[in-house]
Amino acid sequence: MRYVEEVLQPGEKILFVSTIHWLIYVPAILLLVAAIVAAFWAGSGSEVWRWISLLCFALALLSAARAWFKRWTTEIAVTDRRVIYKRGFIRRHTIEMHMDKVESVDVSQSVLGRILDYGDVLVRGTGVGFEPLQMIESPIALRNAVTAR
């Protein structure tokens, strides 16, 4: 069961759910490509390229596992009553803000972010706000879910 589903109040409905964008896997993909290129060069019999290939492959696996775990343990949800942000697994960090305390939602997207539908979101509340949520999937949909009350 997801954290957001665990903390729902009676009668509260989830309107929108998001997480970190899949682009978090790009370093792992680049390391995997480097491993494949090094393996191709290792085919000529060079022991150095074989070790470089194995190192890049191991780093790619480690990077992919880390990215998956970060993406899996991060939840962002908008309900009809509040905005919920959770990250972490054993050491959990959560922020919740009731809808009536939300002042504004700022979205920052690069050109690539607009093409691939990711960006940074900052939810500002009365007195305090969320930490900047970086590389979030569908940031405009998240903003619309928060502001369309």
Short key terms for the protein model shown above:
alpha+beta; 5 helices; 7 strands; 149 residues; 4-stranded antiparallel β-sheet; 42% helix
Structure description:
By secondary structure, the chain is of the alpha+beta class. It is 42% helix and 28% strand. It has 5 helices and 7 strands; from the N terminus they run H-E-H-H-E-E-E-E-H-E-E-H. Strand 2 and strand 3 (82-87) form a beta hairpin.
Category by helix and strand content: alpha+beta
Strand content: 25-35%
- Distance N to C terminus: 27 Å
Q: What is the H/E order?
A: HEHHEEEEHEEH
- Separate helix tally: 5
What proportion of the residues is helical, as a percent range?
40-55%
Instruction: Let me know the largest β-sheet.
Output: 4 strands, antiparallel
Rg, rounded, reads 20 Å
Total number of strands: 7
Topology:
Layout: H1 3-6, E1 14-18, H2 26-42, H3 47-72, E2 75-79, E3 82-87, E4 93-98, E5 102-108, H4 111-116, E6 118-125, E7 133-137, H5 139-147
Antiparallel strand pairs: 1-2, 2-3, 3-4, 5-6, 6-7
Helix pairs in contact: 2-3
